């Protein structure tokens, strides 16, 4: 059991995942600043919405009390998620994809050479050439 865990840790995927988490945490601050400083004010300008948290739905319960569904908070979370996704895509993902495409275009690896024929294929070709030469040669008297 411990041997399997050690192999899992030393495989390398865990290190890559840890680096991704750290970099993701660093980008979180940047993305949140862009969303709260740019995207949310633009949404507020278009929709004139002060806060969606006030949008609730009170429903009577079976025991005689009431319960509150905060559907405005859900809508706000969805809008926030979409805003973060838009920022991440257009600020980080799309430019990185363009850079990768340009780098791949610059590298333009030469085409792979044809594989060498096997020894058996070469012997077959030699046999066929010798047979053609013998067939083309004039008969001996």
TrEMBL record:
Alphabetized UniProt keyword annotations: Cell membrane, Ion channel, Ion transport, Membrane, Transmembrane, Transmembrane helix, Transport
One Pfam family per UniProt: MscL
Leader sequence segment: none
Domain of life: Bacteria
This protein's record includes keyword Transport: yes
Quaternary structure and interacting proteins, as annotated: Homopentamer.
Function text: Channel that opens in response to stretch forces in the membrane lipid bilayer. May participate in the regulation of osmotic pressure changes within the cell.
Protein's UniProt name: Large-conductance mechanosensitive channel
């Amino acid at each position: 059991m411990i041997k399997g865990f050690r192999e899992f840790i030393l495989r390398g995927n865990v290190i890559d995942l840890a680096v991704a988490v750290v970099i993701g945490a660093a980008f979180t601050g940047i993305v949140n600043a862009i969303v709260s400083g740019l995207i949310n004010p633009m949404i507020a300008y278009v929709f004139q919405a002060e806060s969606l948290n006030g949008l609730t739905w009170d429903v009577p319960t079976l025991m005689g009390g009431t319960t509150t569904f905060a559907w405005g908070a859900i809508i706000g979370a969805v809008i926030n998620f979409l805003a973060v996704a838009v920022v991440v895509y257009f600020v980080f993902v799309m430019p990185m994809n363009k850079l990768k495409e340009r780098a791949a275009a610059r590298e333009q690896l030469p085409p792979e050479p044809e594989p060498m024929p096997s020894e058996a294929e070469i012997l077959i070709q030699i046999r066929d050439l010798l047979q053609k030469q013998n067939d083309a040669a004039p008969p001996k008297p």
